[in-house]
Amino acid sequence: MKTIHKILPLRTGVGIAVLNSQNKVFVGKRKDNPIDKWQMPQGGVDTNETLLQAMKRELSEETSITTIEVLKEFDQWLEYELPDKLVGKIWKGKYRGQKQKWFVVKFLGDDSEININTKNPEFIEWKWVDINLLPNIIVLFKKHIYEKVLVELKKNIN
């Protein structure tokens, strides 16, 4: 079964680390996985969309956040593979995982701008957390991504 999965491509996506004025990072609890695991906003890149456009669209679609300053676009792509039990169930079975371009942004607005009850809500709850907690609150198969994001976050906090 695993070899069949390897034939599937990786989905191209973006991830967004949103820092507030206290340098805490935005995380949401996923609607489709309401256990005590949290993630930063992320999503796929549409056809004819730049990575920056995709990042801004995904952030707005998932959180309603638009008042941002882009601090960093990662140089490298980060990749993860879905666990076997999720391949074939997520993304209509078209992908085995994602390759993501991550961005660090500063949220310049007020918390009242944040609204997760969007047209197609992905989160049921949200909060600001200390960046050092990131690797411990994400699902295991994305932990290595969050560890790399944490390294970049530490470089971008003044």
Structure notes:
The chain is of the alpha+beta class and 158 residues long. The chain is 23% helix and 30% strand. The chain starts with a helix and ends with a helix.
Question: How would you briefly describe this protein structure?
Answer:
The chain has 158 residues and is of the alpha+beta class. It has a single domain, classed as Alpha-Beta Complex (Nucleoside Triphosphate Pyrophosphohydrolase).
- The top-level CATH class is Alpha Beta
CATH architecture: Alpha-Beta Complex
> What is the tally of beta strands?
7
If helices are DSSP runs of H or I spanning 4 or more residues, what is the number of helices?
Answer: 4
How many structurally independent domains?
Answer: 1
Give the SSE order as H and E letters.
HEEEHEEEEHH
**In terms of structural class, how would the helical and strand content be classed?**
alpha+beta
Q: Globular, elongated, flat, extended or rod-shaped: what is the shape?
A: globular
In round numbers, the mean pLDDT is: 91
Query: In which range does the helix fraction lie?
Result: 10-25%
Question: Topology, pairings included?
Answer:
Blueprint (H helix, E strand, L loop, with lengths): L1 H6 L2 E10 L5 E6 L11 E3 L6 H13 L4 E6 L4 E4 L15 E11 L15 E7 L4 H4 L5 H14 L2
Parallel strand pairs: 1-6
Antiparallel strand pairs: 1-3, 2-7, 4-6, 5-6
